[in-house]
Inverse folding.
């Protein structure tokens, strides 16, 4: 066993043994002392000993109460022998015994159970009878009670069915076969010394010379003793099948019994085959016997089995490498298999030490938020139709005083910005890709600036018109081309900021694991980087704030300039919407909500800007009332009254 690195420690026994020698052997198993034995792991003890040594070892185990610290296996059988188990049943309880399996000798059991010392004069039978039944067959022995004559051998009372009776039978056969071989060899007429003899005589005086040859023949004979030693002389009585029975000595049903646990069988088709070849070429047949007391089978371990997700790191010692190890946990999202850690795929998670595919969900309204998709589509469709209608209306009434006085060029830029805002949610409805991720980062900022920058220039122009009008009769100069240049310049600055952001971190689509590992979200990595996204919208927020500030400054200007009032209301509501968006978007860690919030922001601000800035102008163009002209004429105040 040492050669195969299985046994951790092997202790040999000397020929001349005393109790002190047995004591030192057991203490060696416990590290030299029995101290702290309760804290030690159970030791697996495999005995390759004869009956005398086995009996002595179990006596010491019982004397020092070591049974709970040992899981014992007797390789050559020990639980079938009364001389071993008698008086040491508690120490042997749970012990496994590997016994040579024999078929029962026909008629022997019936013969033995019917033995009677009154009918059989054999003195050995009388001695055994008196010893087992603790009685005397002779009236002259006053130390024991007289046998009643009703005593009888029975199962486990003077007779054990697993007693290896074949050992005696094979011993008789061995002696007979050895003598036959020797006589055939000695009395062979073809031998030189038999040339002048017709008969062969064996003189008793030559027995010392003959005994050595007979002993050598006995050593060669093995028969079916369960071993795999090479046979020198094959005989027909030698079995080709080697079979062992595995018994366990247990206290069950109020008594100690030898319970059959399993059998191990190996077929040897040719006795000339070496034992190693048999073991390598033939699979042993193992049969395990189950019952209600299966849990009492001892477990011999140097190290506990590693739990799921951990691998064994074997001891560096050659003698311990097969039985002793340390457990090491595998890395994150890895499973253990054959003492190796195997990482799971990017789209897999570990469940019961298996790689399970995680469901994939797209970070788009079409994938994760399908229930909002149709609502958003309707809102986008209606919004685009309204924008196109207002654009067409302004083109039709381009020469009208209402359109021309409200800066036709700036209104066109605002309408383009509103169209971009209504188109922004569309890029959140498609599967994430490099192109869609780029547009997700770029379009919202452009749309907001296309709305806010023209409003900023418009509010600034209104403010200058009324403030400068106190000191000058002429209208402040503000060329439309210059205003468009300002708008496109700021939008270009926004594009450059986005390009710089893309150079630093390209918004590629990426797989992100949910916190509970329930699903994988396929989203743009820009969503997970909130600070760069805030910087990308910072210019829009600042422009919106300046617009609101200018709207606040012109809030008391005359009512005949109705545009200032509508701009102010629109910007106040925009500030509220932006505050709700920023307070909800950045603290929120839930997946998909960012796409919903950005889309909702674009749609709400698109409708707000469209309705707040253009609804009154559309009414004046399509449904003008007489009171509108009267009100304008009555409230046309001079600049001195402002």
């Amino acid at each position: 066993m040492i050669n195969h690195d299985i046994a951790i420690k092997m202790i040999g026994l000397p020929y001349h043994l005393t109790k002190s020698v047995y004591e030192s052997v057991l203490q060696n198993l416990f590290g030299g002392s029995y101290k702290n034995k309760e804290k030690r792991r159970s030791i697996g003890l495999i005995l390759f000993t004869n009956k005398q040594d086995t009996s002595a070892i179990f006596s010491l185990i019982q004397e020092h109460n070591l049974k709970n610290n040992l899981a014992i296996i007797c390789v050559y059988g020990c639980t079938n022998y009364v001389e071993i188990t008698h008086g040491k049943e508690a120490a042997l309880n749970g012990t496994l015994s590997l016994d040579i399996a024999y078929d029962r000798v026909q008629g022997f059991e019936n013969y033995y159970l019917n033995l009677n010392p009154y009918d059989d004069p054999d003195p050995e039978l009388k001695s055994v009878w008196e010893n087992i039944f603790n009685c005397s067959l002779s009236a002259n022995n006053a130390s024991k009670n007289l046998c009643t004559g009703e005593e009888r051998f029975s199962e486990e009372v003077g007779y054990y069915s697993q007693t290896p009776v074949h050992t005696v039978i094979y011993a008789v056969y061995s002696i007979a076969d050895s003598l036959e071989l020797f006589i055939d060899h000695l009395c062979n007429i073809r031998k030189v010394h038999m040339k002048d003899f017709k008969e062969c005589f064996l003189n008793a005086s030559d027995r010392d010379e003959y005994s050595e040859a007979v002993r050598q023949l006995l050593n060669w004979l093995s028969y079916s003793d369960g071993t795999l030693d090479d046979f020198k002389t094959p005989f027909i009585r030698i079995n080709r099948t080697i079979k062992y029975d595995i018994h366990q000595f247990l206290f069950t049903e109020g008594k100690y019994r030898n319970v059959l646990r399993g059998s191990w069988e190996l077929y040897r088709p040719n006795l000339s085959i070496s034992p190693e070849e048999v073991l390598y070429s033939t699979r042993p047949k193992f049969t395990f016997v189950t019952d209600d007391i299966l849990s009492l089978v001892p477990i011999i371990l140097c190290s506990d089995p590693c739990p799921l997700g951990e691998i064994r790191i074997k001891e560096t010692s050659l003698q311990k490498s097969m039985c002793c190890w340390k457990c090491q946990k595998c890395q994150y999202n890895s499973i253990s298999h054959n003492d190796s850690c195997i990482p799971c795929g990017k789209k897999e998670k570990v469940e019961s030490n298996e790689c399970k595919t995680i469901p994939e969900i797209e970070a788009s309204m079409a994938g994760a938020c399908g229930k909002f998709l149709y609502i958003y589509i309707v809102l986008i469709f209606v919004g685009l139709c309204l924008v196109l209608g207002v654009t067409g209306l302004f083109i039709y009434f381009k020469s009208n005083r209402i359109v021309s006085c409200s800066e036709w060029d700036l209104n066109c830029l605002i309408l383009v910005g509103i169209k971009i805002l209504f188109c922004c949610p569309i890029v959140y409805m498609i599967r994430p890709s490099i192109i869609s991720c780029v547009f997700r980062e770029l379009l919202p900022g452009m749309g907001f600036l296309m709305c806010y920058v023209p409003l900023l220039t418009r509010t600034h122009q209104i403010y200058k018109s009324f403030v400068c009008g106190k000191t000058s009769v002429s209208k402040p100069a503000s060329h439309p081309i210059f205003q468009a240049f300002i708008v496109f310049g700021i939008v270009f600055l926004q594009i450059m900021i986005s390009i710089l952001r893309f150079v630093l971190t390209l918004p590629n689509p990426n797989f992100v694991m949910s916190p509970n590992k329930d699903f994988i979200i396929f989203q743009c990595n820009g969503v997970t980087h909130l600070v760069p996204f805030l910087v990308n919208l910072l210019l829009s927020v600042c422009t919106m704030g300046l617009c609101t500030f200018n709207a606040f400054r012109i809030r008391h200007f005359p009512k005949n300039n109705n545009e200032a009032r509508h701009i102010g209301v629109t910007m106040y509501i925009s500030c509220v919407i932006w505050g709700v968006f920023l307070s909800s978007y950045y603290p929120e860690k839930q997946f998909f909500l960012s796409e919903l919030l950005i889309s909702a922001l674009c749609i709400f601000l698109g409708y707000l800007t469209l309705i707040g800035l253009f609804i009154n102008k559309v009414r004046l163009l399509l449904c003008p009332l007489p009171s509108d002209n009267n009100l304008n004429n009555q409230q046309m105040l001079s600049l001195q009254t402002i």
User: Anything to note?
Assistant: Confidence is low (pLDDT under 50) at residues 1-6, 224-234, 631-642.
